[in-house]
Amino acid sequence: MDMSLSSLWVSMSPIAKGIVIIMAIMSIYSLWVMIERFIVFQKAKTQSLKLLGALTNLLTRSEYGQAIEVTKKYKNSHLAKVIAAGLLEFEASRRDKRTADTEVAVEAARQGMDRTAMITVAELKENLGVLATIGATAPFVGLLGTVIGIIHAFEKMATSGGGIASVSAGIAEALITTAFGLGVAIPAVWAYNYFQNRIDRFTVEMSNSGSEMAIYFLKETGGNEKSVA
Fold first, then answer.
1. Residue 107 and residue 87: Cα distance in Å, rounded?
2. What is the domain count for the chain?
3. For a FRET experiment, which of 72, 82, 85, 155 has its CA 20 to 30 Å from that of 141?
4. Contact 13/144 with Cβ under 8 angstroms?
5. Environment class of residue 194 by beta-carbon count within 10 Å: exposed (0-12), middle (13-18) or buried (19+)?
6. Model confidence pLDDT, tens digit, residues 187-210
7. Residue 226 to residue 31: CA distance in whole angstroms
8. What's the number of CA atoms in the CB half-sphere (13 Å) around residue 90?
9. 161 sits in which H/E element
10. Contact 145, 181 (CB under 8 A)
11. Looking at residue 127, what DSSP letter applies?
């Protein structure tokens, strides 16, 4: 009996074909998410490195306006979003006469950076739930195909009354759907864990940047409190 993939496809039951098509869609979708998230994360890493180099001199000279403009050039940087939020809140609070001579400006900047960091983490996690769902469900979808294939094999045996040769296609169908399900799930789980690790690293970087900016603002407030008042 011909055991090529094309022959097995023809011999598959409609339900088994539907399961294979569903898993193919899941595989394509997960691959798209992997590529899209990888590009996003690489841009975030690259632009953040460039941002830090561009901001160092500006913050040393307390040129907040120019620093905010620089952060706008790196829209894909997770650090740019956090630092920009801190600078905007700090500047807005310092201009308010009610908070110009207090540490309220620093606290406002810290809270602004914390809020932005949480929003940025949520943005970085976008579509990762798809990978988790596919990684968790694909083996079970493949298992369903396995059950359908075995049922199909026994149906052929019952109608033909033959031996192992009459059910070999059904058994092969069952094993193929199982392998297909695992082939879809394993890369999705690997990619999900990889991206989660990168998000954890980005979260630490945003937390460290927020802490450093808060310390910087405290120094600025302490050093310029008299002149601002």
1. 12
2. 1
3. 155
4. no
5. middle
6. 999 999 999 999 999 999 999 999
7. 58
8. 27
9. none
10. yes
11. T
Structure tokens belonging to residue 30 = 């997960």
Contact, 197 vs 29, CB < 8 A?
no
CB 206 within 8 A of CB 117: yes
**Domain, as residue range, for 193:** 5-228
Cα distances (angstroms) measured from residue 198 to each of 35, 128, 201, 203, 206: 14, 12, 5, 9, 12
Only one residue has tokens 């294979």, namely 20
| Number of other residues whose CB lies within 10 A of the CB of residue 162 | 11
Helix (H) or strand (E) holding 209: helix 164-228
Tokens of 199: 């998000």
Cite the DSSP H helix spans in 12-161.
Answer: 14-60, 64-72, 78-95, 104-124, 128-160
Q: What does the alpha-carbon distance between residue 55 and residue 67 come to, in Å, rounded to a whole number?
A: 6
- Asked if 186 contacts 144 with a C-beta cutoff of 8 angstroms, the reply is no
**Three-state secondary structure call for residue 214:** helix
pLDDT digits (tens, 9 = 90+) for 6-48: 666 666 778 778 888 899 999 999 999 999 999 999 999 999 9
> Tokens for 5?
């993939």
Three-state DSSP class for residue 101: coil
Instruction: Report residue 229's pLDDT band, with 50, 70 and 90 as the boundaries.
Output: very low
pLDDT digits (tens, 9 = 90+) for 70-90: 888 898 999 999 999 998 888
